[in-house]
Design a protein that fits this description.
Length: 410
């Protein structure tokens, strides 16, 4: 039997502090049961296909092997639909109030403790596998060894990935960090209807990489982050496709696959990101200028003969008016002077291992993040003038959140 009431108390302690050092100290006290349950909740490659869990009157039991077996059957989709709901309701009714919280947080993939994968793996290296996608560097024409390149508009939406498993008949919509996006369940349903087209693909599951859009970026995030309501008018714009380890197919072939997939679905809910081909840096600059003139953020330059790699690199390059990068929030630091008692900004860790303070937050955001420990672990975009030779950022400023989270973690 798992001491899941102890695990609940542990998670509550984690969520009660904003301090990175205090969180690290608490994490170091985790027993094997708690580590196992955290792994089941935060492993992005384990999903349970359930967005919401009901809380009946509590029982007297802690999480036991039968509950773990149920989780494994949910993960394999041996349990799904009404059978899954009935099994979860029965399991929840047997558990104490604290253990109910733990089981529900595992199933919904949200430990609600304001602690991200980076901090957990800092204490327990490798405990939580990292969900990875291709990420971009800042555009540098010297990095282009062969023209033409593909140029795609940088959509004002949110990165989303559809994990398609034709053997199980399942589709899961997740964020670029691997967190479930239950508000995109209608998109998943559309994709499930055509899952048979992937049956003969050699590498499974198949990952459809794209951007979920619904009005402005803020509208998109507002809709997609919801658990209680679907993003009713969201569109999933696919721009790439890859397998479990990425893809060795060149981008040019992958774009052809994307076209065939979108054409086969033939629905306005599934779109593609249009591609234009630029034969020189002058054509790239002209393309991005057209985007800026149209009020868009910029564009992405992609190397046509490059594979899909699960890391940041120059196969994809972003072109916009300032440099920026995305980092996970490690902590919130206190403001000075008139801002004592509220947030001064975020602390993030750079690629070179340095911790960096990021200012530039609004008055409203100061109070919001200072009183909200769940901001820890969120992903933010940081704008800056340039990088120093050592990899530090000159004049880093907060731009916006780049994940699906709000004060209540999803």
């Amino acid at each position: 039997m798992h001491d899941s009431d102890h695990t609940f108390a542990f998670l509550e302690r984690l969520g009660a502090t904003k301090s990175k050092n205090e969180k690290l100290a608490i994490l170091a006290t985790a027993d094997e049961t708690t580590k196992d349950l955290m792994h089941r909740a935060m492993n992005p490659f384990i999903t349970y296909g359930v967005a919401k869990v009901h809380f009946p009157a509590p029982g007297v039991s802690a999480i036991a092997e039968g509950h773990i077996t149920m989780l494994e059957r949910l993960a394999s989709r041996e349990l799904s639909g009404n059978a899954a709901k009935q099994a979860i309701d029965k399991a929840m009714g047997s558990l104490t109030a604290g253990s109910q919280q733990v089981l529900a947080r595992i199933i919904t993939k949200d430990l609600k403790c304001g602690t991200g994968t980076t901090l957990i793996n800092e204490v327990w290296p490798g405990l939580i596998p990292k969900f990875a996608v291709q990420l971009s560097e800042v555009y540098d024409p010297k990095r282009v060894k062969s023209w033409p390149v593909a140029f795609q508009r940088k959509l004002d939406g949110m990165r989303a990935v559809a994990i398609v498993d034709p053997d199980k008949g399942t589709v899961d919509m997740v964020s670029r960090e691997g967190r479930p996006l239950p508000a995109l369940d209608p998109i998943a349903e559309v994709l499930r209807a055509g899952v048979g087209m992937f049956a003969k693909w050699l590498e499974k599951p198949i990952f459809l990489d794209g951007e979920a859009t619904s009005g402005s970026f803020n509208d998109t995030v507002s809709q997609v982050r919801r658990k209680s309501k679907d993003a009713e008018d969201a569109v999933f714009n696919i721009f790439d496709v890859f397998g479990p380890g990425g893809s060795q197919l060149p981008l040019e072939q992958r774009l052809t696959l994307v076209d065939s997939i979108v054409t086969a679905y033939n629905t306005p809910r599934i779109g593609r990101v249009a591609v234009q081909y630029c034969h020189s840096d002058d054509e790239v600059q002209a393309a991005v200028n057209r985007e800026w003139d149209a009020g868009e953020e910029g564009g992405m330059v992609k190397i046509l003969d490059a594979p899909y790699e699960l890391k940041r690199g120059y196969h994809w390059m972003k072109v916009k008016g300032y440099d920026s990068a995305e980092f996970e929030v490690l902590a919130v630091f206190e403001g000075t002077g008139q801002y004592v008692g509220t947030a001064g900004g975020f602390v993030v860790r750079l690629e070179n291992g340095e911790e960096c303070r990021v200012a530039g937050i609004t008055e409203a955001l100061r109070a919001e993040i200072w009183n909200n420990p769940n901001v820890i672990g969120r992903l933010i975009e940081v704008g800056f003038h340039e990088r120093t030779p050592s990899g530090s950022l000159r004049h880093p400023r907060f731009v916006k959140f780049r994940d699906t989270l709000t004060g209540e973690r999803e």
